[in-house]
Amino acid sequence: MPSIFTRIINREIPGHIVAEDDHHIAFLDINPLVPGHTLVVPKLEVDYLFDLEDGAFCKLQLFSKKVADALEQAMPCLRIGVSVIGLEVPHCHIHLIPINSMDDMNFSRPKLNPTQDELTVIANRIRQILDPRS
Ligand code: AMP
Description:
- The protein is α+β, with helices and mostly antiparallel strands.
- The chain has a single domain (4-130), classed as HIT-like (HIT family, subunit A).
- Helix content is 31%, strand content 19%.
- It starts with a helix and ends with a helix.
- Bound molecules: adenosine monophosphate.
- Adenosine monophosphate is lined by residues 4, 15, 27, 29-31, 39, 85-89.
């Protein structure tokens, strides 16, 4: 069965997509730790990040860097925190999190539950920075 992220990639379920190319996609986490929490995902459905072949791994990092740069501009913060967990969704992904303190990276604390409208506003802001014509 395809992962929930593959279903977003295939537009079978909605996602607040901020960036995409032939091999990667980035969209907002529906239950973010902080507003702007973004997931960067390779389209190839591999469970464990370190099972990606070297080229795919490096390209995913470069794609993440581009998204992180835009995210930092869209969501003023001290920096973008990076995390890989993968205990919930077996399709590898990188969490990009706009942080102002260590606690913003605390995955044990209760997650936020933003409305679709709130997610749309943030996704549009990030997309605009990545592609001002959008
Ligand atoms: P983990 O696999 O432990 O790295 O966590 C998976 C992350 O994916 C969690 O932060 C979830 O909130 C997020 N998530 C799960 N389903 C969706 C979805 N349909 N759209 C966006 N984010 C999701």
